[in-house]
Amino acid sequence: xxxxxxxxIEEIISLTDEEFDFILSHFTAIKxxxxxxxxxxxxxxxxxxxxxxxxxxxxxVDYLGKEHILQFAMEHWWITDYESFxxxxxxxxxxxxxxxCELLYISFENRDKLTSQMHKMExxxxxxxxxxxxxxxxxxxxxxxxxxxxxxxxLLEQYPKLxxxxxxxxxxxxxxxxxxxxxxLKA
Length: 187
Known about the structure:
Elements: H1 4-9, H2 17-24, E1 27-32, E2 37-39, E3 47-53, E4 56-61, E5 67-73, E6 78-79, H3 82-87, E7 94-97, E8 101-107, H4 108-117, H5 119-145, H6 148-158, H7 162-165, H8 168-175, H9 179-186
Antiparallel strand pairs: 1-8, 2-7, 3-6, 3-8, 4-5, 4-7
Helix pairs in contact: 4-5
């Protein structure tokens, strides 16, 4: 059976067995339990994570103690605090596991080595980065121009399984509304 990371990478570039083995040698497999952190605000982030199994959230807590969810990430998604990862500065967000998770991570150093030694992976990450920017732009546009009801329906349409995996209070925090407002939207 083909490794899930290989299938993921081969959606963009083709690989030989030797190339994939070389790529995989730069990653480390880990397991995290529900509620365990991958990143805590203030950390200097040295890892980018790829999710084999599980669901993760990235978020920040404002000065009033209110949680604001920036992203949910599920199987075959990448997640980290990219500003901290790239600039090696203190993280402005936290990332933790909503479910028990199986992950692969690549360190900043290993990613740098891998991309300099294998230009295919440089192309892969360039494409993934572009797709991430598009997704972020679309999220911002939706927040600015759509009603909460439209954003709720769009999230439900795009990620229906998320609603079975994530508590309603987290969906509300992602949409920037109260649980009560979310309940009214569902009615």
